[in-house]
Every structure is written in C-alpha cells, then in structure tokens.
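In this notation, each integer encodes one residue's backbone shape. One such record reads:

___
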Amino acid sequence: MYIKRHPCKYNLIRFQPIVDSDEFANVGVVLVSMLTYELHFKVLAKEHNQRILDFFAPLKEEVLTQALESVILEFNGLKAILAEQRKIQYYDYRVVPRDGLISYSGTRAILSESPAHTFEHLYSRYIERIGFNT
C-alpha cells in the first residue's frame, strides 16, 4: 500500500529582544507542506510567557505579547496567500533568518504522512520541551 508523504519545511520562531547578544528563546513553530501548501503555525500561549520573561528580565510582558501578536497576524496572512497563490517562495521569503525582535531558525526539511500531526510533534518538542531531559 502506498502512503502519501508530504515534503515539508519548518522553522522555529525565535524571540530575540537583545539582537547584539545573540541570545534567543524559541517561541513558536511554523510548518508548510510543499505538496498542498497547507500552513501550520503556533506561538507560545500567553500563560507560558513567564519562562521567556524570566530569561530576558527585566523585559516588559507587553513587548513579548505584541511581538507574538504580530507573528500571528503575519502567518494568518501568509496562510491565505499560500491557499490562493500556491507559491512556496512566499513562505521562503517570510522565514529568511534576519536580525530583529522576531527571527527564524534556518529552514529544516521533513517528510510527513500528516503535516498537522508532524507540526504538533515539533511544537511539543521545541516549544513545550516535551521529550527533552532537563
């Protein structure tokens, strides 16, 4: 039996309030299927902000909250564009690593039978840190 596998790209969404320090915290994941252009993304839930705020003390919570809200707006817009125009270049342009309050890891590739399931696994691993021995 043939199992359809989706080639996917994903990036970690990073919060980097002090750009010149090179310190960042992973605050989200974004994944796109290159087969269906289906986009999945999620950022850290507000109730988990304290971990980030403690790391970057004395950062004000409003800075983090506004940064994450802007990410949500941008990726909701990208999701609509990908559904309509079906060009992966729009994703590639959005996640180019650059300096700023929000940045992205290098793009990684993965084969997936279910992009939604793979996305949830990646989010659990990198953002909720499930499966890491700490």
